[in-house]
Specification:
The complex is a heterotrimer of chains A (345), B (126) and C (504). Helices cover 68% and strands 0% of the residues of chain B. In chain B, helix 1 runs antiparallel to helix 2 and helix 2 packs antiparallel against helix 3. By secondary structure, chain C is an all-alpha fold. Chain C has a domain of 222 residues. Helices cover 75% and strands 2% of the residues of chain C. The chains are: A mainly alpha (345), B mainly alpha (126), C mainly alpha (504). Chains in contact: A-B, A-C, B-C.
Chain lengths: 345, 126, 504
C-alpha cells in the first residue's frame, strides 16, 4: 500500500463534481443551473485544496463559486429563466457528440505517456520549479512561493492578467451601457422594477449585511497585505472587496450604492490599478533596471535588494486589488441593470 | 486497483472537459453555452493542477523556524507552485470571458426576447 | 533606452489605452491623440529594432522581463520576449497598419458611433497590444494571455456595430474561447513532458529527446487546432463573415488584416521553433490532413465569395481563402512553401487592410456597400475605385504587386512537394477573384453612360475625406512597393528566419 494515492476523498469529490457539472448543463430551469454551477465550482475548490493548491482554491472560491454565479444570476434574473428548447436539435447533438468523443479519445491516447501521479521527479517538478522553491526566500524574502512567482518571476503575466480584467470591465460597459438621457431609447426595458425601498422590509437581510460588510472589507485588506505569508494576494482580496459592495447592492437598492460609488468613480478606479502596475515597471526602467525588475528600486525602498523585491510585490498587488475590485463592481452593475445604472437585482 | 485510481483522475478530467466542449457546440441556449464554457475551463485548470501535485507534499508556503529564519525547504515535500500560477491566470481569464459572454447574451435577449439560438436565427431572417 | 525597445513595443499601446480610458471621462477629445501617440511610439520602436537586428551578429534580440534570465541548469526562469528575423517584419507591419487604421477611423467613428465612442479607441489600442504581444513573446503561456487580451477587445469592438453584431460577436466568442482552451490544453500536454514554457528552451528539448512522445504529439495537434479556430480555418470559419461584416467600419478595418494573420504567425512559430521542421515532416498524417483542409478552405472561401452581393461579405470570404494559402504554405514544410507563407502574412495584411479601407471609404460616402448599387462608382470616386482595382489585382496575383510573388513561391512549394491539389486550388481562387474584379469594373465603369461625353448626365466627384483617403492610398501603394522589394525582404529577412530545412 506504499503507493496508494494520498487523497482518499479525491475520488468522491471528482465523481460528485462530474455529476454536478452534467446536472448544471441538463437542467431546464436556468436559475437552478446557476446554483448547481456554483456548487460545482465549490467542489472544484475543495478538490484543488486537497491537491495542495490553496491559492488557486481561494481564487476559485471567490471568483468561481462567488462572483461567476452572481453574474449568471444577474443576467438571467429579469430575462429568460426557463430554458425549454424549441427543437431537440438531434443532428447538432450527435455531431457535437462525435467531435467530443473523438477529441476525448485522442486526449486519452496520451495517457500511458504521462509520468506517475504525484511523482516528485516528473519533468514538471524538476525543471524550473525547484529554482522557485529553493530561492523564493533569498531572492524576495517572501514565504508564499506562489506570490513570488506570480508577482516577481512571472510578473509580466500578472500585469496582462490585470489588463484582461480591465478589458472585461470596459468591454461590458461598452456593450451594455445606455445613457437614458442622451440616447433615444429604442431598446426595450427588460428590468422589472423592484418595489420601492421599505425600511421594514427584509429587515434581517439589511441589518445582517450592514454588519458583515465592514468585516468583509477588513478581511479583504488583510488578504491583500498578508499575501506574502498566507494564501491570498491581490486577486483574492480585490474580489472580496468587490463582493462586499455587490452584497450591499443586492440587499439594499442599487440606487443607494450608486449614490456613493458613482459610475465615473468606478470606471476611473478600474483603470488606476493597471496604471499603478505598469508604472512600477517603468520606475524600474528609470532606475536603470529591466522592466519589472524590482531590485532596481533598491535605492528608494527600505531594506536590501530582497526586501526591495518584497515591497515591489506588495505595490503591484495593491494595483491588482484596486483594478479587480472595481471591475467586479462595474461588471455586476452593468449586468444587473442592463446598462441603465438605475435599478437592478 | 492501485493504477486505476490515478488513471481514474485523468479520465474524469477528460470527461469533464468534453462535457463542457459538447455543451458549447450543441446546446441551443446561450446561457447554457456560457456555463459549458466555464465547465470546460475549470476542467483544464483541474488537469494542470493535478500534474503539479506531489505525493505527501505540503502547500507551497514556507513556515518560519526559530529566530524568524527559514530552513532550506525539502523540494520533494513542497507542491509545485508553477502550475498554480498559470491556473490563477486561467481562472481570471475565464471569468472575464464569461462576463463578456453574459453581457452579449443579455443584449441579444433585449433584441430578440429569447435565449434560444434557433428562435433568434428565425427572428433575424424575418 | 535603446535596450528597452522590445518592451516599449508592447507597453506603449497598453499605456495609451489606459490613459485614453482615464481621459475619456475628463476630456473625451483627448483619447484619440493619446492612442495615436502610443501607436506611434510602438511603430518607432519596432522600426528601430529592425536596424538593431540587422546590425547584431546573432540575429536575435532577447529581453528578460524582471531581470530573470538563464539560471544555469534550470533554464530560463522568467518570461522572455524575443525579436528575431521571423517576427520583426510582422511587428512593423502590425504597427504601421494599426497606425494608419487609427488615422483612417477617426472620421468614421464620429459618424457611425456618435455618442458612445467613449472606450472605442482604448479598446482599439488594447487589441493592438494583444496582437503585438502574441508576435513578440517568447513564452507559450504568455502567448495564451496575449491571445485572450486580443480576443476580448475584438469581441467588444465587433459589438459596437449594434443590430446583428451581438449574435455574431457571441458566436465568435464561443468559437474563439474553444480555440484558446484547446491551445491551453495543448500547452499543458507539452508542459507535462518538458516542465518548461520558454520557447527557446523547448526548441532545445523537444527535437532532441521527445520525438516519439505521444503526449507531446497530442499537445502539438491541440495547439495547432486551437490556432486554426482563432484564424478561421476551415471547418471553423463560420464565425468570420458575420463578425467582420456587422462590425463598424473602423473595427473591421483593424481586425480583418491583423487578427487572423497573427494567429498564423503563432502557428508557424510553434511549428518551426518549438517543434522543428523535422518533427512536422515526420507526422505525415497531420500534414496530409492539413494540406487537404487548406485546399478545401481556399475553394470554400472563393466559391462563397461568388455568391455574395455585399462587398464586405465578399472581402470576408477572401480572408477565409487567404488563410488557406498561408496554412497550406506552412504545412508544405519545404523552403519555397514556408517563404511564401511568411511573405504572404505581410502581403495579405496589406492587401486586406487596403480592401477594408477602400470599402470603408465607399461606405462613408455612399452609405451602402451592395455591389448592385455601386453604379458609376468610377466617376463618383475615381481615386478610391482605382485603389480597389489595384487591391483586387494584388489579390489575383498580377505582377508587380506582392500577391504575385507570394503565389509564385506557394506554387513552387506545392510543385516541389507534389501537392497538386493545393496548386490547383490556388489557381482556381485567382480565377474566381478575376471574375469578381471584372464584375466590379463593369458595375463601376460601364453601367452608366460616360459623363465626359456630350449629352450624358454628369456625376459629381465626391471622394472620402482626406483623413480616410490618404491612409488608403498609402496602403495601396505599399502593395506595389512590397512587390518591388520582394527580393530584399526574402533574402535579408525571411530566408534568415527559417531554419535549415532537410532536403526532400
Amino acid at each position: 500500500m506504499a503507493d496508494l494515492p494520498i487523497w482518499h476523498y479525491d475520488t468522491l469529490f471528482l465523481t460528485l463534481a462530474l455529476l454536478f457539472g452534467i446536472t448544471a448543463l441538463a437542467m431546464q430551469n436556468l436559475m437552478g443551473a446557476a446554483i448547481v454551477f456554483g456548487a460545482y465550482s465549490f467542489l472544484m475548490c475543495l478538490i484543488w485544496t486537497t491537491m495542495g493548491a490553496v491559492d488557486v482554491a481561494f481564487t476559485e472560491a471567490a471568483v468561481g463559486a462567488g462572483v461567476s454565479t452572481v453574474f449568471i444570476f444577474a443576467t438571467i434574473y429579469n430575462t429568460g429563466v426557463s430554458a425549454t428548447p424549441n427543437s431537440p436539435r438531434i443532428a447538432f447533438k450527435i455531431f457535437a457528440g462525435l467531435i467530443a468523443f473523438g477529441t476525448g479519445a485522442f486526449l486519452l491516447s496520451a495517457l500511458p505517456d504521462f509520468p506517475d501521479w504525484g511523482d516528485p521527479k516528473s519533468p514538471v517538478n524538476s525543471t524550473i520549479a525547484p529554482y522557485y522553491i529553493a530561492n523564493s526566500i533569498t531572492d524576495a524574502h517572501v514565504p508564499n512561493i506562489v506570490t513570488t512567482v506570480l508577482a516577481d518571476y512571472r510578473g509580466f503575466d500578472t500585469l496582462l492578467e490585470t489588463t484582461v480584467v480591465f478589458i472585461a470591465c470596459i468591454a461590458i460597459y461598452s456593450i451594455l451601457r445606455i445613457d437614458n438621457a442622451k440616447s433615444k431609447v429604442t431598446e426595450p426595458d427588460i428590468i422589472t422594477s423592484p418595489p420601492a425601498y421599505d425600511p421594514t422590509d427584509s429587515l434581517i437581510i439589511r441589518q445582517a449585511s450592514r454588519i458583515m460588510v465592514p468585516f468583509m472589507q477588513l478581511f479583504a485588506l488583510y488578504v491583500i497585505a498578508h499575501g506574502h505569508y498566507s494564501p491570498g494576494g491581490g486577486f483574492q482580496g480585490g474580489v472580496i472587496l468587490g463582493a462586499s459592495i455587490i452584497l450591499l447592492s443586492i440587499s439594499f437598492d442599487l440606487k443607494h450604492v450608486l449614490q456613493q460609488w458613482t459610475e465615473k468613480k468606478i470606471m476611473i478606479l478600474t483603470a488606476l490599478g493597471v496604471l499603478i502596475y505598469a508604472m512600477v515597471g517603468l520606475a524600474c526602467i528609470l532606475m536603470d533596471g529591466v522592466y519589472l525588475d524590482y531590485a532596481a528600486l533598491d535605492s528608494v525602498l527600505p531594506g536590501d535588494e530582497a526586501y526591495a523585491r518584497s515591497h515591489g510585490i506588495l505595490l503591484v498587488e495593491i494595483g491588482v486589488g484596486i483594478t479587480v475590485m472595481f471591475s467586479m463592481i462595474g461588471i455586476y452593475i452593468n449586468l444587473a441593470s442592463n446598462g441603465r445604472f438605475d435599478r437592478g437585482l | 486497483m492501485e493504477d486505476i485510481i490515478p488513471k481514474f483522475n485523468y479520465i474524469v478530467v477528460v470527461v469533464l472537459m468534453m462535457t463542457g466542449l459538447w455543451s458549447m457546440l450543441a446546446q441551443g441556449n446561450l446561457i447554457k453555452k456560457c456555463i459549458g464554457m466555464a465547465i470546460f475551463q475549470t476542467g483544464i485548470i483541474l488537469f494542470f493542477i493535478s500534474i503539479g501535485a506531489k505525493n505527501d507534499a505540503l502547500i507551497p508556503i514556507l513556515t518560519e523556524g526559530a529566530n524568524h529564519t527559514f530552513d532550506n525547504p525539502n523540494i520533494d515535500k513542497v507542491t509545485n507552485p508553477l502550475t498554480q500560477i498559470l491556473m490563477l491566470t486561467a481562472i481570471v481569464v475565464g471569468v472575464a470571458t464569461l462576463g463578456v459572454g453574459l453581457a452579449l447574451a443579455q443584449k441579444v435577449y433585449q433584441q430578440h426576447d429569447s435565449f434560444d439560438e434557433d428562435e433568434i436565427l428565425n427572428n433575424q431572417t424575418k | 533606452m535603446i535596450k528597452h525597445l522590445p518592451i516599449f513595443i508592447v507597453l506603449a499601446p497598453l499605456l495609451g489605452a489606459v490613459f485614453a480610458a482615464l481621459t475619456s471621462w475628463y476630456r473625451p477629445k483627448l483619447s484619440f491623440p493619446v492612442v495615436l501617440s502610443g501607436l506611434f511610439i510602438s511603430f518607432l520602436s519596432s522600426f528601430c529594432l529592425i536596424f538593431k537586428l540587422l546590425n547584431s551578429e546573432s540575429g536575435i534580440i532577447h529581453y528578460q522581463l524582471g531581470g530573470w534570465g538563464d539560471k544555469g541548469e534550470y533554464g530560463i526562469v522568467g518570461i522572455q520576449i524575443t525579436v528575431d528575423y521571423l517576427n520583426s517584419l510582422i511587428l512593423t507591419a502590425v504597427t504601421i497598419i494599426s497606425l494608419l487604421t487609427a488615422i483612417f477611423s477617426s472620421q468614421s467613428v464620429n459618424r457611425e458611433l456618435a455618442g458612445q465612442q467613449r472606450y472605442f479607441f482604448a479598446l482599439f489600442s488594447l487589441l493592438v497590444t494583444g496582437l503585438l504581444g502574441i508576435t513578440i513573446t517568447g513564452d507559450i503561456f504568455n502567448l495564451y494571455v496575449f491571445m485572450e487580451i486580443a480576443a476580448l477587445s475584438s469581441y467588444a469592438l465587433i459589438a459596437y456595430g449594434k443590430g446583428r453584431s451581438y449574435m455574431a460577436s457571441f458566436n465568435y466568442l464561443i468559437m474563439g474561447t474553444m480555440g484558446a482552451c484547446l491551445y491551453l490544453l495543448g500547452v499543458g500536454f507539452v508542459f507535462v513532458k518538458t516542465g518548461t514554457l520558454n520557447i527557446e528552451n523547448l526548441s532545445l528539448l523537444i527535437p532532441q529527446t521527445l520525438q516519439a512522445s505521444q503526449a507531446v504529439f497530442v499537445g502539438f495537434v491541440l495547439i495547432i487546432v486551437g490556432a486554426w479556430a482563432k484564424m478561421a480555418f476551415f471547418p471553423m470559419h463560420g464565425w468570420l463573415p458575420n463578425a467582420y461584416t456587422y462590425a463598424p467600419t473602423a473595427s473591421g478595418a483593424l481586425l480583418a488584416p491583423l487578427a487572423t494573420k497573427v494567429s498564423v504567425y503563432a502557428m508557424i512559430r510553434i511549428m518551426i521553433t518549438v517543434y522543428s521542421i523535422d518533427y512536422v515532416l515526420k507526422s505525415p498524417n497531420i500534414q496530409t490532413a492539413a494540406l487537404l483542409l487548406s485546399s478545401i478552405s481556399i475553394l470554400v472561401g472563393s466559391f462563397f465569395s461568388l455568391t455574395q452581393t455585399n462587398l464586405r461579405k465578399i472581402a470576408c470570404y477572401f480572408i477565409v481563402s487567404e488563410i488557406g494559402y498561408m496554412v497550406g504554405g506552412a504545412w508544405l514544410a519545404n523552403d519555397p512553401g514556408l517563404k511564401g507563407a511568411v511573405y504572404h502574412i505581410i502581403a495579405d495584411a496589406a492587401m486586406t487592410s487596403a480592401l477594408f479601407m477602400v470599402i470603408g471609404c465607399i461606405l462613408f460616402r455612399t452609405g451602402q456597400v451592395e455591389l448592385k448599387k455601386l453604379d458609376g462608382l468610377f466617376y463618383k470616386m475615381p481615386i478610391t475605385f482605382i485603389a480597389l482595382v489595384i487591391t483586387m489585382a494584388a489579390l489575383i496575383g498580377v505582377p508587380p504587386t506582392c500577391g504575385f510573388f507570394s503565389k509564385f513561391y506557394l506554387i513552387q512549394g506545392a510543385a516541389q512537394a507534389g501537392t497538386w491539389h493545393f496548386a490547383g486550388a490556388l489557381l482556381i481562387s485567382s480565377l474566381i477573384k478575376a471574375v469578381i474584379l471584372f464584375r466590379i469594373i463593369e458595375i463601376g465603369y460601364n453601367k452608366v453612360p460616360n459623363p465626359a461625353k456630350e449629352g450624358n448626365k454628369t456625376i459629381p466627384r465626391d471622394e472620402a475625406p482626406l483623413s480616410m483617403l490618404i491612409p488608403t492610398l498609402i496602403v495601396t501603394l505599399s502593395l506595389i512597393a512590397l512587390g518591388i522589394f520582394t527580393d530584399t525582404l526574402i533574402t535579408d529577412f525571411i530566408a534568415k528566419a527559417l531554419p535549415e530545412i532537410p532536403a526532400p
